[in-house]
Amino acid sequence: MGIGAASAEVFGLSLPAPALLLGILFLQIVLVGLFAYQLRKLRSCSTPFAAEPEEGWLPLEVVLCLRGADECLPRLLRSLAGQTYAGPWRLQVVVDSDADPAWPLLQPWLNRSDTAWTELHCRTLQQRPSQGSLKCAALRQAFSDLHSESALVLLLDADIRFAEDGLQRCARACLKPGIGAISGNRWFAPPSPGLSELHLSSWTRAAWNAGAVVLMTLWKIPWGGTLCVRRSVVEAGDWLELLRRGLCEDTGLLGPLRRLGLDYRFEPDLIMVDPDPAQPLLPLSRWITRQLLTARLHHPAWGLVALHGLSSAVLLLLALLQGDWAAALIYELGCVGLLCWIEQLIQPQVSPHWLGWAVGLVPGQLVDGAATLAALLVRRISWRGVDYLVRFHPSRVTILRDRGI
Asked: How many domains does the chain have?
């Protein structure tokens, strides 16, 4: 079969790639429409900021797991120190080692009394297991040392931007009937590109992440950057078992929640807008591969995630090889329009960044396809200087080598 006759087999019928490409565009329009409907529904159900939960402002615990001197950590600590949460809460920090460079960033806060937390508890990671990631090991240690009165547990990443009423928002959302865990998500908002400075990697990451936000919302994939759970979820044990062998804490949470008769909910009020520039394209592609790998290891919707990632890239390339530039152009313009629509749903006060999305779209699609393929094939992954061996049946990771920070 020659290039000009390139086609794909679907349900026993041989269809040209351009037709399939436009079919994928239609499905993406449907997905974004469903996302818009669900986002509006979630926002309409949101409790007013001033409202106190029916159970009151219960004691909660914030957990930070640190490895390395993240330059954003001081910003997060300042935000936590100024929280307006009306109930008592404790900050627990687990640092990777005694020599970790995060300690100097923590030092100024160890003996301060002008902070919102009632107690700051910092410890070094005590056991470095051969199975499961070091972050999961740090979380299991933190969970074993929770304060007896903590009713909610909030996990934060060191690089997030957290509002001064962030604890209140988390508590209100997580204490709603039937809800066992809530999280926000990250929205990348690079500077508006000019004709001489297009910020290719930043807009590539933004384009990939915009699609990820839609899929994570529709298929209930939690985000660990801001993840709040009820104490009962920790004590039930199923989630702890996942942490014992898993790579991450968030994407596998849906199963343990459902076994408890609880649900996960995406909370639009916790969307974190991140204007920081992206890393270069090669490290960015590795980061995206790891994000997708966590879905493959731990989430039941992985097949749909993989289909989304592979179909766009493969069919776009096939259409270009066939020389059907019109179908490819219609598809790309449609995707740019969808990205602007998603942006308006997330940030209605911001004018659409047409040029930025146009710059990041094609590399975002290609990186997504390549990263999805890598997530299907990879058997070894590196994360913060640690090499892990990945196994899928049953899903687990083992530590191969710790190369340091």
From this structure: 1
